[in-house]
C-alpha cells in the first residue's frame, strides 16, 4: 500500500461443489498467480463458500473444523508474501453447527477480522443448514484504514452497510455466490451501497455451474461515486484494480450525507 493507493486482486473462481481438496488446490494456484503479477496486490479477495460450495446436504461433513485448515493456509501465505487476504468465506464447523465465515489476514498472517453471515438466504436453504452470525464484520486495513465485510445476500440489507459506514468503514468487501439470472440486482445493489455510503465496494463473485445453478461472475470494484472501475466477465480469472482511499474523504466532504442525516426521524 502506497499512501492512499490500494492494489486489489479478486480471485473469481469456479468452485467445485462438495470437493474441498480440488478447491484448496485451485485457491493455491490462484494465490500464487496473483502474487506473480508485475504489480503485486496489497489485498487479495476471494469468493463465498469457496471451500465446499453449496453442498449443504453434506456440509456437516465437509466444513472446515474451526476454520483451522483455512486459517493455517491463508495465514502462512499472507505472512510469506506480505499481502493482506480477505479470505472469501468458508463453511466452518463449530460445536453448535456450521457457519458461513470470513477471515481477514494482515501482512503478518494474523487474523485481524472475522464475520459470520448474518442474513441466511432462504432460496438456497441456508437457514436449514447454517447458523446465523451475531456481529458485524469490521476490521482495519494496513495504515489503520477502517473496512467492513459482508457476504452475498447481506447486500440486500442497506442497514448493515450503513452501520459499517457510520463506524468509519471506507471500503466494503463482499464475497459472494450470486447466481443467474440476477445480474442486474447484483450490479445495482452494489452500486447503491457504494453511493449511499460514499465508500468503495469490492465484490468477488464466483463463476461456473453447480447442479442447475449458473454463477455469472462479474466481480466488481466500485468507487464512492458509484462508478464501476473494474469488472470481470463470466469466466474464471483474476480481476485487478487500484483504488485511491483519499477519494472517500473527498466525496464525503463534497456531499455531506453523514452530517445531514436526521436519525431522529428514522
Notes on the structure:
With 266 residues, this protein is of the alpha/beta class. Helix content is 28%, strand content 30%. It contains eight helices and 16 strands. The strands form three sheets. Strands 1, 2, 3, 4, 5, 6, 7 and 16 form an eight-stranded mixed beta sheet that branches. Strands 8-9-10-11-14-15 form a six-stranded mixed beta sheet, with helices on one face. It has a two-stranded antiparallel ribbon with strand order 12-13. The longest helix has 16 residues.
SSE succession: EHEHEHEEEEHEEHEHEEEEEEHH
The low-confidence runs, each spanning 5 or more residues with pLDDT under 50, are none
Structural class: alpha/beta
Q: What is the tally of beta strands?
A: 16
Q: What is the number of helices?
A: 8
Q: How many whole angstroms does the radius of gyration measure? A: 17 Å
- Overall pLDDT metric: 97
In helices, the fraction of residues equals 25-40%
* Biggest sheet descriptor: 8 strands, mixed
| Straight-line distance between termini | 38 Å
**What is the beta-strand fraction?**
25-35%
Principal-axes geometry comes out as globular
